Amino acid sequence: MTQFRGKFINGLDKKGRCSVPAPFRARLAGDSLVLRRSVSPDHVYIEAWPVSQFDTANRDTNPLSPLSAEQNAEDYAFIVDVAEVTPDPEGRIILPRDLIEYAGLSDGVAFLGRLNWFELWEPAAAERRIEEARRAIAARAAAPAPPRTDA
After folding, report:
1. Which terminal residue of the chain, N or C, has fewer Cβ atoms less than 10 Å from its own Cβ?
2. What is the mean pLDDT of the chain?
3. How far apart are CA 1 and CA 10, in angstroms?
4. Is residue 151 part of a domain?
């Protein structure tokens, strides 16, 4: 199973090219990437899925079965509104302009591993998100344990 871990920051040039971090490239093993807007209502970033993982994660649909309004919206958000990119021999990808603008990227990209996929963030926003997560974990660790009910 492909697993992406860690944080890397790489440059983004005026043509929208950036290098996928070497550890992530090794795990891609030649697979293309499906890029889509984040599904988080609280954070703006780009999700990058290896095509093989993306295909596995998405359901098969019967073309003769009508889709519910929710399924139809999901298809447009998660399947239609995507871009497929293939790293060049140097490991660079070209990010579509609309995704660059959506994520607020300018001259750098933070790559955050999320096991089956990775995220592309504006570097300062990525640092804020990581710090936010650290504070949430610390608060949870400091909270008193709930009373035991098995006694």
Report:
1. C
2. 88
3. 25
4. no
